[in-house]
Amino acid sequence: MSPLNAGLLVALGLIPSFVWMSFFYKRDCHPEPKYLITKTFLMGIIISPFAVLFQLGFTHINQWISVDYFNPSSSMFFLWASFVEELVKFYAVRIIAFKDPAFDEPMDAIIYMMMAGLGFAAIENILVLFRTIPDGLNSAMTVWGLRFVGATLLHALSSGLFGYFLALSWFSRKHAKKFVFLGLGVATLFHFAFNAFLASSMNQSHGLVWATGLLVVMSFLVYILFDKIRDRSPKNTIRLSPAAEKEISTA
Q1: Where are the domains of the chain?
Q2: DSSP states of 148-217 as a string?
Q3: Which among 127, 213, 195 is positioned nearest to 155, based on CA atoms?
Q4: Is the pTM of this model over 0.85?
């Protein structure tokens, strides 16, 4: 493959994330600094190999002890994989945004989690394009279109739901760590459900319908929760207490 063609595939893989990034960024009534948005997005890309390594580790565990929980064809593997991906996206935000002075209001948690999710989705899109292009341009573009409105949006929305629970730490600081685990659990379950519906669509056509319906529900939830957090946020929000920040950072 020529460098030009490789560059085009990389650009195509980034486009869905950039489009959704622009859409969600404009929803923020106090737009975050672009340098921090960019760093969080890039960290979502950089940290993504850790999710792959964990998933490969699960596969090797299954080969050693033959436990169905880690069988790549089992539903439990989808659950573990979803958990790892949501955890990795959270750590991308923890590394980059949590300690930055610009992270100064509850709604920022949703925005930065979404940016990390879109970075993670971008590298997935690029890898999928490189894997499917040998099957022909039409096949690759079909997969790209489906991921544009499917997997890319899923990563943004599941991370956004996680971010909502992180945002709640501003209003109940003593339960900050609980909100981290609750957000991780909710994001994992939605992510798992989407992947399970897609997997079932290989044999049953209604699986794709259920996956699409789930995205609609998630979009509605994020829209409502985004506005709820925005309405609850005072004009001059005080940052998390050091104790709360420590609880979240060490989760």
Answers
A1: 3-249
A2: HHTHHHHHHHHHHHHHHHHHGGGT-GGGHHHHHHHHHHHHHHHHHHHHHHHHHTTT-THHHHHHHHHHHH
A3: 195
A4: yes
